[in-house]
Structures are given as C-alpha cells and as structure tokens.
Amino acid sequence: MFRIKLPVAAVASLAVTAGLLTACSSEDTSDTINVGFVAPLSSSPSAFQDPALAAKVAEKAVNDQGGINGKKLNVIVYDTKGQPANVVAGARKLVNEDNVVAFIGGNSNDGLAEIGKRAGVVNWFPMGCAAADVANELSMIAALNCAGAGQGTYLGGTRFKPRKAVYVAFAGNTPYIENAKLGYRNAGVDDVAVVEVPPETTDFAPIIAQVKAQNPDVWGGMIYTPEKLTSLIRAAIDQNLRIPLVLSNNVMEDATIELVSQSGIPNSVALEKGEDAEQFPTWKQYEEQLAKYDPEGEIKTPHDGSVTTDWLAVWTFAQEARKLDVVNADTFREHTTGLTDFQTDVLHPIDFTITDGPVLTAPRQANLWAFPGHIAGGKIVVDSKEPYSAFLKTPVS
C-alpha cells in the first residue's frame, strides 16, 4: 500500500533529446556545474529571500571543499517576482542557456514542472504541496509542507491528549487543513475546529478571539510568512491564551522561538529535520556554515522549513553528484530516479521511487517521518533521535 514505483526506464523516457528543450550533454566541457533556483524573491506577498540565501551558503561551502569532482558549483537564482510568466521564462533560460543539471528547491508551479520534464531535468527537494510537484516523477521530494501539518497535530494530540483542538490555517488551504485533521484523528482526537485566516490579515486579535470561542484544549497551526505566525502567537499571548500550542517548524523564525520560549506556554513542535548539532552531524555543518558564510545574519529565519530544505537541497545535491563520473542532467536524473534508500542523518531514509502516498491531497510522498520536539530555553529542542510518523501511526518517543 502507498508504494507505487515508477520504472527508471519510464522516467528516462520523459527526457527530450531534441527540440526546443535540451539538457546539458555528456560532452559539456564547462568548468562549472549549474543548478537553478526559481522562487519569488521580491514584488510579491509571498516573497521570501532567506531560502535563496541559504542555498548560496551551501554553494560557498561546497566550493570551498573543492566543488564537485573538480568543478565549481553554481547556484543560479532566478527571481520570478511572483509572476507565472517569469517562472516559465526563468525555467526556459535555465534549461536552454544555462544548461542546469537540476532545479534546486523551490517548487514546480506555473509551468516549471512541465519544462523540467520535457528536458529531463530533476527538481531536487522541491517544497510545498504544489500539484505540479507531487504529480511530477522528476520531483525528488524530501519533505512536503502539508505533511508537516499532520506530523504536528499528531505529535500534539499524542503528547497533550486533548478532547478538542483548534487548527489555524490560511483560508482555502485544503492540503494543510485536511492533513492537520488527519494527524489529530490518528492521535485519537476527533473534535477539531478550523479557523481560517484571510491571507491579507495583519490584525490577529480577532483570529485569537475565534480560537478562544471554541474553548479548545490545544491550538496551533501554520500561516505564511514566518512574521505572520509570530504575530498570531503574540496576539494569543496578549489575550492570555495559555493552553498548549501545537506547531510544526514549516514556517518559523527566530522571533517565534523566542516568543514561545519566553511565554512558558506548553508546546510541541514537529521537526522535518533533526535540528540538533550535538545529535546530528549534518545540522552541525549547517550551523557552522551559517556562522562562516552568513556572519551578519542576513538569513532571518534559519529554522524555517523551506530555508533549511533549500540549504539541504544544495548540500546533498553536491554529495550525490560527486558519486557520478560525469555530472549532467541525464546522469543525475538516472542516478536519483533510482534511489531507493537516500540517506542523510537529519532525515529518515527516503525511497524516491515511490510515486504515491497517504498524505491527503498529495499523490506523491516519500518521507513520512518527523522528529518530536518543543521550544524551550530560547531554542528548538529535539526530544528524540527516533522519528515518528503520523501517517503510519507510529509511537512517539
């Protein structure tokens, strides 16, 4: 169940070797290995620069270690400014002019997935629950944001055993809402009220009033951007809402962590990754790279799920590419589409050949695991190195 595998030959057939879109060939003699990062970095309500900054941190670290088989890694960042037409233009440029080996992070909305599939270019670690990602055999998904909703509520439901819960989400965000309900349900919590927030909201006091009116035992949720989540929690504290707070770290800035820590409110946090430098060597590398390559702290949300995933995307891309004698779009696609046991210590092992899964509204999901945690002492605390799964209903350590 939930394990439909796509033959490697079928994936390879997606690549177009002639026509408008062609990937980098094995005869490429460039001294750089290009990857493309496509995201809205400006001029959009969803604009968020930290993921791209984190990707560039990993790029610098890779190149300081000698690059990839003697070649320099080049992360080409393309700002879509939130415009679908720019996504298509950027993807075409990256494929046709820059000969990218892969797209890194971001997501495949607005035509990027189709361009990538036609060119046979893998999207390594895309984020979100975009239909273009979850239906794309060339999307190597390490973490789905909407899965985090279910992991968070399952952890909170298991830990606090509430009779009634409230989940806060953006209006119409069905993937998060349905997976949040599933997580609570799998933890034995059937009474779940949803409070939907219009995306343009800036005053969160009325939202918290709606939460309190439900008289829940626990509450929590996910709204974007990280600053808005902080504002939501601040409004809760201002209204003396002291019941346990149930979160995942999909969207979380340092200000959120500090605010929750200072409040002393009981809380749980589902972690997509093992965020502890003492327990997880890869997380130690992340923190060391931030200190070295971002000493001024331009990255404001180093614990945000999309930020850490895009750093990890570049870092692990280099590790996988170094295993290849020749690195181009064809060889990287052939390598990654056959990975049944991708491993990095901050994630549960992933079978990238799985093209179906139990995450609601998302037909492709390989990583069904998270780490239990909470916020205390001004930081995120990983409670156990043993991951759990809301979707497989495993015990929580």
Automatic annotation (TrEMBL):
Gene3D superfamilies named among the record's database cross-references: 3.40.50.2300
Domain of life: Bacteria
Keywords, comma-separated and alphabetical: Signal
SUPFAM superfamilies, A to Z: Periplasmic binding protein-like I
Signal peptide: 1-23
Keyword check for Iron: no
Pfam families: Peripla_BP_6
All copies of domain Leucine-binding protein, residue ranges: 32-358
Family: Belongs to the leucine-binding protein family.
Protein name in UniProt: ABC transporter substrate binding protein
Species whose genome carries this gene: Gordonia terrae NBRC 100016
